[in-house]
Every structure is written in C-alpha cells, then in structure tokens.
Amino acid sequence: MFVIGALLFGVLLGAYSAKKRGGSLADILQYGAVYGIGFAIVGLIATIIIHRMAL
Length: 55
Known about the structure:
Elements: H1 2-20, H2 25-54
C-alpha cells in the first residue's frame, strides 16, 4: 500500500515541480516518471522494513 501511495505522490510532486519551472509536456512527464519511480522505491523499502519489524 505504501508503494502505490508513494508512487502517486511522487508523480504528482514531479509533475508539479516541472510545471512550476516552466517545463514542456515532455519535461512534466519525465519529472513525473522519475519522481514516481524514486518515491516507489522508497515506499518499497519502507514496506519491507515495516513488514520485517512486525514479524
């Protein structure tokens, strides 16, 4: 669940960041993808840590 939430948050944050900097559509999509992937990895690591601590 953390992974999906982090992914969506990263996409929105990346798109907002690119739009705020005056980027084109390609820039907005690229920032969204990169931020989404980065945040999804962080969410995956958080999920694994939380799962390991619960056992």
